Amino acid sequence: MQDPTSQSTAEQRIWTILAEIDDPEMPISIVDLGIIERVEVSGGKARIFVTPTFTGCPALQMIDEQIVQSVGALPEVHAVEIEHIFDPPWRADRITPAGRERLRAHGVTVPGSKFVQLNRARDEAVACPFCNSQDTRLDSPFGPTRCRMIYYCTACRNSFEHIKAI
User: Fold this and answer.
1) Which domain holds residue 43?
2) Do both 80 and 127 map to the same domain?
3) CA gap 1, 40 in Å, rounded
4) 102 domain-assigned
5) pLDDT 10s digits, 60-106
6) pTM for the whole thing?
């Protein structure tokens, strides 16, 4: 991912605007989610490179529309172009520490450096975001979106979502 601090003023302003756009499916900005690969500005044209969390993500069109609307409102931007990048694919380790904390505060956990693989998930403990207990179990590999699954904490008896490792 591109380092926004090494960019021109226009590119830095775009990064600031992108950081204010939340993912429509989760309480996290698209920058903290790690889907913004890079930003390029040339001659009033802004090119935003986006790495979707999943191919065919239904929220992608909404994200693109929010980017075009928000970035296009800048006086120095006359056109906004979005390019989707699928190689390399998005991974959960692209989520920033601030993004991980924001998700945890909303009851969504994120794989750490040692990813929980879907086929091994039943054997791996995921700490509960509510009580921090490791006494959890996979309840369903299918969550409300393609990128999440549901866990259950037997200690506090809460269900919570866990982002799938890719």
Assistant:
1) 4-84
2) no
3) 13
4) no
5) 999 999 999 999 999 999 999 999 999 999 999 999 999 999 999 99
6) 0.82
